[in-house]
Amino acid sequence: xxxxxxxxxxxxxxxxxxxxxxxxxxxxxxxxxxxxxxxxxxxxxxxxxxxxxxxxxxxxxxxxxxxxxxxxxxxxxxxxxxxxxxxxxxxxxxxxxxxxxxxxxxxxxxxxxxxxxxxxxxxxxxxxxxxxxxxxxxxxxxxxxxxxxxxxxxxxxxxxxxxxxxxxxxxxxxxxxxxxxxxxxxxxxxxxxxxxxxxxxxxxxxxxxxxxxxxxxxxxxxxxxxxxxxxxxxxxxxxxxxxxxxxxxxxxxxxxxxxxxxxxx
Length: 265
Description:
Blueprint: H1 6-18, H2 25-51, H3 56-68, H4 72-80, H5 91-101, H6 110-122, H7 134-160, H8 182-189, H9 202-211, H10 219-228, H11 230-235, H12 242-259
Helix pairs in contact: 1-3, 2-3, 2-4, 2-7, 3-6, 4-5, 5-6, 6-7, 7-10, 8-9
């Protein structure tokens, strides 16, 4: 990866995304949401990469990976009007199809193209595969962390301003009822990132987000989450019931024990 290739990729991305803007305000709202999300994920992945003292080539690779990790989201939303993969299409696989069809990485070394494509494929999986190339897994962890950091930002901002109107795309089309998933609570108390299959309501989706803390890989990411109080902000929007409050206490202990960081500071 060469530094002078980066402007080309950003240019390509901008031109590609611009084609999805139309007269439909709902589509435009969510295309803009994903465009802005992508650019912030690029900044996050650069921050994580620099915190790990990666070489310049790897930082550039990570940046391009972030730029295209959600490239399938735009066509997905235009066609299906949802970001729910279960109700539409796997956006990572769609993104890979688009990349290959456009020969987007044809000027990169084959091993770099393979790394980016594999990391895109793995970025939205519930769990990373066990036996894979260590370098691919490492970059997959980079994008998974960077992606979650911005999703936390997007969703906590949305929850705090929801009185101004809801966006079904950000609720994954789930109903806003008082019920919550005991399975997700159980997973959190067992230090597990939970499964979308347990999500039936908006409360479940919020608890799922809370459980993502167990799939965060780098100290930089945890520090950012703690600094921005993302977990507290999500839990504060949930019913004030003992099992849910117990998850907050449990996560505080987990972060303190694993990373030596207190959420109270």
